[in-house]
Amino acid sequence: MLVFLQIIMGAFVAGIDAGFGFNTWPLMEGKWIPDNLIPLSPVWLNMFENHLTVQFTHRMLGYLIAIMAIVMFAFQFGQGASALRAWVTLIFLMIIAQILLGILTLLLVVPIPLALLHQGLAFVALSVIVVATTKTS
Ligand code: HEM
After folding, report:
1. How far is the CA of 92 from the centre of ligand 1 (A)?
2. What's the CA-to-centroid distance between 132 and ligand 1, angstroms?
3. Considering the entire predicted model, what is its pTM?
4. Phi/psi of residue 6, each to 5°?
5. What residue ranges do the domains of the chain occupy?
């Protein structure tokens, strides 16, 4: 569900070319939480039209997904069926690769091959998560 939401938010980043600004990592404008994050009114408009907010929320949700993948991976040791462990490991590796690709895409100011890889892996990862859910539940 979170990865699905993140893909939609990725489309907002690409849609308004928000990846062409704030090309530093991990900080944005020298800060973990940049100033002037919600300048537009009404507030929800920032989620779609403000480059800073759109990119910031895409980053933050990406980190949350990464933390969940790491926690899942860490807790799988010594428990569950081996098929479940294999799925968890695969999902963990894909999410880490996806985060690294996102950071590289940002730092190199959106080269098309990297942006395409980042977009493509997102859909592969979502598909793997859906299949894993049906196979293990
Ligand atoms: C689980 C984590 C992530 C997923 C599933 C994800 C997914 C996506 C998707 C699907 C797009 C492209 C949307 C489109 O073209 O329609 C996108 C765009 C982008 N993402 Fe991510 N993303 C993740 C994490 C990150 C992170 C951590 C960063 C940077 C710190 C990042 C940076 C970008 C940038 C710069 C773009 C715009 C590329 C462009 O203009 O074509 N992403 N993301």
Report:
1. 17
2. 22
3. 0.96
4. -65, -35
5. 2-136
